[in-house]
Design goal:
Blueprint: H1 2-24, E1 26-31, H2 35-47, E2 53-58, H3 60-68, E3 75-77, H4 82-89, E4 99-104, E5 106-110, E6 132-135, H5 141-152, H6 156-159, E7 163-166, H7 169-177, E8 183-187, E9 198-201, E10 210-216, H8 223-234, H9 236-244
Length: about 260
């Protein structure tokens, strides 16, 4: 009998502890290019006493739609600034908490064992690149930037029939990782620390700046935790992690090789 009581008490404590942990977490809707960087930032944030973020990564446009329609996120970190402006205008997020946190960078990534990597963006017209992945430019900032870059170098018409859109920039990279495409135009943040494949950094002057912003949302229940996380991203430890994944702010320099 005593053993059953002890076991029941232990089970109650386990459930209660899990409930407390769940209660401490806050919800972050974040652009897909942030997946690796924000996961590392979260570890550092929690190590300094911060609450545990629960991430939903995806295309900024689709996440913005969810936020605007009332999804209970505490923080929205977009791959550009315009989607943040949209959710603020919709009354879903607090304009006073809006902050720029990164400038993203575009690369052409080729998987190992595939065609010889391009040395310029114009090389994508070569027949060896039969399929080219990009994030969907309809709702993904990196896809829009990729399309703008192709237009800028005058090759969109030549390669448009070969473009394979992914739902977001991470999905586009996955197409290349699995060999379904020959090259992917994706974020540097997802490729900079890869031990395989080859990245070609795309000149940022070929597309609109990938300036990224975040904002605290009104429907979430843990806005203070969300604001603390946003402030941590902007702090020296947060900035150091973001730089390691290729993210800059205007005027910043980076030592990591693309």
């Amino acid at each position: 009998m005593r053993a059953r009581v002890v076991a029941a008490a232990a089970l109650w404590l386990l459930v209660a502890g899990a409930g407390c942990h769940k209660k401490k977490s806050f919800r972050v809707a974040a652009a897909a290019d942030l997946q690796l960087a924000f996961q590392e930032v979260a570890v550092a944030f929690k190590a300094q006493g911060g609450a545990a973020p629960s991430f939903t990564f995806g295309s900024s446009g689709l996440l913005a739609k969810q936020v605007a329609e009332g999804a209970p996120f505490d923080l929205f970190a977009s791959g550009n600034t315009s989607y943040v402006d949209q959710v603020v205008a919709a009354g879903a997020c607090d304009a006073a908490t809006r902050s720029a946190y990164a400038r993203g960078r575009l690369v052409a990534w080729t998987p190992p064992g595939g065609p010889a990597p391009p040395t310029t963006l114009a090389d994508l017209t070569d027949p060896r690149f039969k399929r080219i992945a990009i994030a969907n430019p309809e709702h993904a900032p990196y896809g829009r930037a990729a399309k703008q870059a192709l237009i800028s170098v005058g090759i969109l018409a030549a390669v448009e029939s070969r473009l394979i859109p992914g739902e977001n920039v991470r999905a586009a990279l996955r197409y290349a990782e699995t060999g379904d495409v020959d090259v992917a135009l994706v974020s540097m943040s997802l490729t900079i620390n890869k031990k395989d494949g080859t990245s070609l950094a795309i000149d940022g002057a070929l597309h609109e700046p990938l300036d990224q912003a975040m904002v605290v949302c009104k429907r979430g229940k843990r806005s203070q935790d969300a604001l603390a996380f946003a402030n941590f991203v902007a702090s020296p430890p947060g900035r150091e992690i973001m730089r390691r994944y290729g993210f800059l702010l205007p005027g910043e320099a980076i030592s990591a090789k693309p």
